[in-house]
Specification:
Number of domains: 2
Number of helices: 9
CATH architecture of the largest domain: 3-Layer(aba) Sandwich
Order of helices and strands: HHEEHHEHEHHEEHEHEE
Strand order of the largest sheet: 5-4-3-6-7-9-8
Strand content: 15-25%
Bound molecules: S-adenosylmethionine
Distance between the termini: 34 Å
CATH topology of the largest domain: Rossmann fold
CATH class of the largest domain: Alpha Beta
CATH superfamily of the largest domain: Vaccinia Virus protein VP39
Radius of gyration: 20 Å
Helix content: 25-40%
């Protein structure tokens, strides 16, 4: 049922004296692979990214940077979550921001805008080849999915230009992750966005960043729930399990979030 038809259906129901919740309960769920998916329980009504004027303005600017690479449906809710997580990270008294997987700088732009508006102290470190996903260290599945070489239509100068207004706190670390971590000299971290698409690089980011997280720090893993990037999920789950840390919280956007507590215990395994 399209959004418009759904709205029409609900309106008719309400006009006839019914309640919205009754109408929603009657909308038939979708069946796929024997699983029931409730298509319209909150979806059409809970899209805060469509109703937040401040977000829409920043998103439009980030979207322009991406030169059409961002599809609204799949990126807009993720961008909204990212922005909210950056705000949450600023509740930590200190620590740098880090992004691994920057491309043209769209998601870095969102977090940098939050950082700048808050007048935050610290640096925002950006790690990427700025020449696309390298072929090194790919699993057979990643090779089959042709991840290597993607996101190559960019240069460090282009991304630097896109983030020029944040030049006083943004630091570029162009090159291969994890090699570029060695000289980065990062101390404490309160916000990390990992959007690097491959399993080995995701693991390297976690190994470098998690020990540097301050109490309350936020990590957003963009690739966690995407079938094409399943290796990112596998290494993430294994890493947190091996470290005895609480796992990440998977979101319906495909992202996963992790909020670091210095004295954390594992989540209960329901
Ligand atoms: C999905 S893109 C990042 C998108 C970006 N966050 C945005 O705002 O649109 C993934 C990026 O990870 C980078 N990347 C992947 N593996 C890498 C590695 N081992 N070292 C450095 N950069 C890497 C690619 O160059 C690419 O720009």
């Amino acid at each position: 049922m399209s959004d418009l038809k759904l709205a029409e259906y609900i309106l008719q129901h309400v006009k006839a004296g019914g309640r919205i919740i009754e109408a929603l309960n009657r909308i038939s769920p979708m069946m796929a692979g024997g699983e029931r998916y409730d298509t319209a329980v909150v979806g059409p009504f809970a899209m805060p990214w469509k109703h937040d004027a401040m977000f829409s303005m920043i998103y439009a600017q980030a979207n322009a940077i991406e030169r059409g690479a961002w599809g609204g449906f799949s990126v807009e809710p993720r961008a909204y979550i990212l922005l909210k997580m950056a705000e949450l990270a600023l509740q930590c008294p200190a620590g740098d921001f880090v992004e691994c997987g920057v491309f043209r700088g769209g998601t870095a732009f969102l977090a940098a805008d939050v950082f700048a508006k808050a007048g935050a102290q610290g640096r925002f470190h950006l790690f990427d080849t700025f020449a696309g996903v390298p072929d090194a260290d790919l699993t057979n599945e990643e090779k089959a999915a042709r991840i290597g070489g993607s996101f190559g239509d960019v240069s460090v100068d282009e991304t630097r230009g896109n983030l020029e207004r944040f030049a006083d706190f943004v630091e570029f670390h162009p090159g291969f992750v994890p090699d570029t971590f060695a000289d980065a000299g990062i101390g404490q971290v309160r916000y990390a966005h990992i959007d690097i698409n491959t399993g080995q690089a995701t693991l390297a980011c976690l190994e470098y960043l998690v020990p540097r997280l301050v109490d309350g720090a936020v990590v957003v893993l963009d690739d966690y729930g995407w079938p094409a990037y399943v290796d990112c999920k596998l290494v993430t789950d294994e890493y947190f399990s091996e470290q005895g840390l609480p796992g990440v919280i998977p979101l319906h956007t495909g992202q996963a979030i992790y909020i670091h507590r210095s004295n954390a215990e594992r989540y209960l395994n329901f």
